[in-house]
Design goal:
Blueprint (H helix, E strand, L loop, with lengths): L2 H17 L14 E6 L5 E6 L3 E4 L7 H10 L9 E3 L5 H4 L2 H8 L3 E4 L3 H6 L10 H10 L10 E3 L3 E2 L7 E5 L8 E5 L3 E5 L3 E2 L7 E2 L7 H5 L2 H6 L4 E4 L5 E2 H7 L7
Parallel strand pairs: 3-4, 4-5, 5-6, 10-13
Antiparallel strand pairs: 1-2, 2-3, 7-8, 8-9, 9-10, 11-12, 13-14
Bound molecules: zinc ion.
The site of zinc ion has 4 residues, from loops.
Length: 255
């Protein structure tokens, strides 16, 4: 008679235990990579793109590399297995943890040539707010970070096939001069702060809070979709459906 409550208790325990567990990210093929979104704090995402080897895209804030390390451990990715670290741009909430990750992993860091100065200074260029909310967010977002020099700088399209993924890194200057996008052959694109997800509805596309050059930034949207991008992974919120992005930016002049 005493076994039944014990069995139920175990059932609850196992259910709760399993509910909190995240499936490990295993190697995939280069043609069908898997993307995992990592929450690195204060509403910012980093990503692992897993083809035959993992590629880390963005590294979160310098102050929170421990959070990134924990997130990698949660999905079973050893930093020493990283094939490459790609920085979508040089702002501190994306590049802050890069130097630490390079030390842990031994992987090379790829960044856009136009952002090298910012990375070496460990400081954002002046952030140009696009709205009243942008002015408020600037105070939270504009923090110094550990400076470093990237190993590889993007000057033309960078082929990711040698790193185990069918795709490339392309230059999309505008949000910053050295902004880049990771564009996969399967229709997924990781575009950093080209735009963002909504604060309330994270799958709703919105203009980012800051752009060095809004018009240059948003001029990349239509060509990316025309070239086959179907789903966008962004630095804040998302992922975003390409059709929703096209609708949001169809008639949305820069301030
Ligand atoms: Zn940014």
């Amino acid at each position: 008679m005493r076994t039944r409550p014990i069995r139920i208790a175990w059932g609850v325990f196992l259910f709760l235990g399993c509910a909190g567990r995240v499936a490990p990210l295993r190697p995939r093929t280069a043609a069908a990579p898997e993307i995992r979104q990592l929450d690195v704090g204060t509403g910012t995402n980093a990503y692992v793109v897993m083809g035959t080897r993992p590629i880390l895209v963005d590294t979160g804030w310098g102050k929170s590399s421990a959070k990134l390390e924990h997130q990698l451990a949660t999905i079973g990715v050893d930093p020493r297995a990283l094939a490459l670290i790609v920085l979508t741009h040089g702002h501190g909430d994306h590049a802050g943890g890069a130097d630490r990750m390079r030390a842990l992993s031994g992987a090379k860091i790829l960044a856009g040539a136009g952002d090298v100065e910012m990375l070496q200074a460990g400081r954002n260029r002046p952030l140009k707010p696009m709205s009243g909310i942008g002015k408020l967010v600037r105070g939270i977002s504009d923090k110094p970070f550990p400076p470093f020099t990237p190993d590889l700088t993007l000057v033309s399209d960078f082929d990711l096939r040698p790193y185990g993924v069918d795709g490339k890194v392309i230059s999309i200057p505008g949000h910053t001069p050295g902004s880049v996008a990771v564009v996969l052959d399967d229709g997924d694109a990781l575009v950093g702060d080209l735009f963002r997800g909504g604060i309330v509805h994270s799958h709703q596309p919105e203009r980012h809070f800051f752009h060095d050059d809004c018009q240059a930034d948003e001029a990349h949207i239509a060509p990316l979709i025309a070239s086959g991008a179907k789903r966008f992974f962004v630095g804040h919120g998302g992922p975003l459906d390409a059709a929703a992005v096209a609708r949001r930016f169809a008639d949305y002049p820069c301030p």
